[in-house]
Amino acid sequence: MAIYHLHVKNISRGEGRSILAAAAYRAGETLPNELEERMSVFGGRRDVVANEIRVPQGAPSWMADRAQLWNAVEAAEKRKDARLAKELEFSLPRELPRSAWLGVAHAMADAYAAKGFIADLAIHDDGAQHNPHVHLLLTTRVITVEGFGPKIRSADGRAFVIEARSLWARVANAALGKAGIAVAIDERSYAKRQLERKPGEHRGPDREERQARRARLQQRRPQMIPREPEEDLPVPDPDGNPIHPRELGEAESRMLDDMHAVDPGPGGSETDGIDAARAAVDRESAREMSDDEAAAYRLAPENLLDWLGSPASPHDVADVEVLERWENHLDWLDIDRPQPAAPTDEGISHEPERGGR
Predict the structure, then answer these.
(1) How many Cα neighbours within 13 Å face the side chain of 352?
(2) Rounded CA gap, 234 and 350, in Å?
(3) Backbone phi, then psi, for 21, in 5-degree steps?
(4) How far apart are CA 97 and CA 117, in angstroms?
(5) Rounded to an integer, what distance in angstroms lies between the CA atom of residue 117 and that of residue 152?
(6) What are phi and psi of 30, to 5 degrees?
(7) Please, are residues 17 and 85 in contact by the beta-carbon 8 Å criterion?
(8) Using one digit for the tens of pLDDT, what is the confidence trace for 150-170?
(9) Residues facing 28 on adjacent strands
(10) CB 85 within 8 A of CB 139
(11) Residue 14 needs a FRET pair 20 to 30 A away by CA distance; which of 100, 119, 180, 240 works?
C-alpha cells in the first residue's frame, strides 16, 4: 500500500495572504502584484518540475496568463476577509515513475476545469524524489466572458473535500496500474477500513535531517542541472565582440602584433619608418653647437629650450658680452677648477688675546 496524502485549504485575504504571492511561489515565477504595487519574486526555484494553467472551455484567453489571472482574482474580491482561492495539495506516490507525474496532474486539473474552475498546477520535487507533490490552485468564482461571476458554492463544505480525496485515489491508482505497479492508495482511514494500525503522526520539520538532505542535493545538482562550462563561454574582444575561447589565443596574438607594430605613415613600409626614426636621432646627436649655445643650454630653464629646435639666428654683440660677464662670475661652480691656496699666518697681525699683557 502506497502512502496517501491530500489536503484541501483556503487561501484567504483575512489571514493576510496574497494570491499573487501564493501563485508565484508555487510556480517558481516572479509576478507583478498590481493591488500592492510590488513584485512577488520567486523566480529561479529549482524544485519546480512543471507548472501550467488549465482553463474551462469558453474561458477568455487572458485567463491562461498567470499574472493576469490572479491579479483579476484580487481585483474581483472586495471583502477584507475574502477567500481568494482553494488549494489541493497531494503527494505523488514514490512508486509512480517520474514520466507519469504530469499526466496525473493534468487529470486532476482537467477534472476541476470541467466543473468551471480554473486550475493552476505546479509539480514540486527536491531532485531526490523524497517528497514529490502537486499544488493545485482553484479559482472560486464562475467564469464569464467578461471575467468572474458569483461564487461557486459547491466548493464550500465537507462534500468538496471528500470528493477531492476520492478523485485523487482513483486517478493515482489508474496511473499506477497503467505503469504496471502492483500497489494502490486508499483515501479511507484505518478505522473505516477496519485495520488495527496506529495512524501515522506528522513529525514536522527535522532540522538535522533537512540539512543532511540539502547537502546531498548540493552534491547531486551538477548532474541534475547541466550547465555550460565557464571555459566554453565567449569572452569579449577590445571592441566588445564575442570571442570563443578556442579562438582566444589567436586573437591575443593578433592584438599584441597590432600593439607592437610601428605606423610607417602614408605610403611607407615598416622598415622605412624605423630607418627614418634612427636617422632623426643620429642628426640630433651629431648637431654642432657653439660655446655660447652650450652655455645658454646649461643656464636656461627647461621650458625655454624650444629655440634649440629652430634654426640658429645671428647673435647680438651686447648679448654675448652679458653672457661672458655672467660666465666669469660663475667660475666657482666648477669644482674641477684649481682653487687658490689658503693664506698662512705670516705677515698677519692677530688680535691680542684678552687678559694678555
Answers:
(1) 4
(2) 94
(3) -65, -40
(4) 28
(5) 9
(6) -110, 120
(7) no
(8) 999 999 989 999 999 999 999
(9) none
(10) yes
(11) 119
Residue 86 in contact with residue 152, Cβ under 8 Å?
no
258-313 pLDDT, tens digit per residue, is: 776 655 555 555 566 677 777 877 887 777 777 777 777 666 655 555 555 555 55
Cell numbers 653647437: residue: 289
pLDDT of residue 341: 52
Locate 12 and state its grid cell: 484567504
Q: Please write down the HEC assignment for all residues of the chain.
A: CCCCCEEEEEEEHHHCCCHHHHHHHHHCCEEEECCCCEEEECCCCCCEEEEEEECCCCCCHHHHCHHHHHHHHHHHCCCCCCEEEEEEEEECCCCCCHHHHHHHHHHHHHHHHCCCCCEEEEEECCCCCCCCEEEEEECCEEECCCCEEEECHHHCCHHHHHHHHHHHHHHHHHHHHHCCCCCCCCCCCCCCCCCCCCCCCCCCCCHHHHHHHHHHHHHHHHHHCCCCCHHHCCEECCCCCEECHHHHHHHHHHHHHHHHCCCCCCCCCHHHHHHHHHHHHHHHHCCCCCHHHHHHHHHCCHHHCHHHHCCCCCCCHHHHHHHHHHHHHCHHHCCCCCCCCCCCCCCCCCCCCCCCC
Q: Are 20 and 65 in contact (CB under 8 A)?
A: no
Cell readout for 103 is 499526466
Distant-in-sequence, close-in-space partners of 175: CB < 8 Å, separation ≥ 6: 96, 100, 103, 104, 107
Residue 34: CA atoms inside 13 Å, Cβ hemisphere, count? 11
Burial degree of 139 (CB within 10 A; 0-12, 13-18, 19+): buried
Q: At what angle do helices 317-329 and 291-299 cross, to 10 degrees?
A: 60
User: What is the rounded CA–CA span in Å between residue 49 and residue 67?
Assistant: 19
CA pair distance 266, 275, nearest whole angstrom: 15
**Grid cell of 65 as nine digits:** 496568463
List CB contacts of 310: < 8 A, sequence separation 6 or more: none
Question: Rounded to whole angstroms, how far apart are CA atoms 163 and 177?
Answer: 21
Q: What are phi and psi of 109, to 5 degrees?
A: -65, -40
Q: How far apart are CA 103 and CA 207, in angstroms?
A: 33
